[in-house]
Amino acid sequence: MKYLVAGLGNIGYEYEDTRHNVGFSVLDVWAQASNTAFKTDRYGDIAEVKFKGRTFVLLKPSTYMNLSGKAVSYWLNKLSIPVDHLMVIVDDMALPIGTIRIRKGGSAGGHNGLANIAQMLGTEAYPRLRVGIGSHIGFGSQVDFVLGKWTPEQKEALIPVKDRAIEAVKAFAFEGIDRAMNRFNKSSEKEKKEATAPGQ
Prior knowledge:
There is one protein chain. The chain contains six helices and seven strands, in the order βαβββαββαβααα. It is α/β, with parallel strands linked by helices. It has a single domain, classed as Rossmann fold (3-Layer(aba) Sandwich). It has a seven-stranded mixed β-sheet with strand order 2-3-4-1-5-7-6, with helices on both faces. Strand 2 and strand 3 form a beta hairpin. Helix 2 packs across helix 3. The longest helix is centred in the C-terminal third of the chain and has 24 residues. The radius of gyration is 16 Å and the shape is globular.
């Protein structure tokens, strides 16, 4: 059983370690932990991870964020993977750092990568996992914020978040999206409340 896991980001040295590239970062951690390497192919870098009878095809699109749908659509068709076996990992400014959220579908919420995927697939009903990158308030414009680089402290804080995101994708494949949402969205809500509690 195959799943396409697309981590969104922008290619190029100038975009490394930026908040917008958190999807790339999650897949890099997964590939490294699985002792596999990405290979450059059409519209992106591809790695394949097998785990307990499931095959996860990890995709880092080379089309740049705003044309992510081109790569996602191509690889879904090439590998004959249905849309409900797709998981898109993407950054989200509406969520605090340390929070992840699984969704079955819905609007792009202003995210150009998600919007282009919906356009190319002809539907907004595809699974996605949003990784919180925090608010841009105090950091200038939204564009400057998402294309800005993580601080050393934030990079350290993201280590367990990336691991949890990988576990969430595995849960999606093995338990179904409803159970995965129930498990991981609830834990994220708890962490969000603790992070914003008085005295924190």
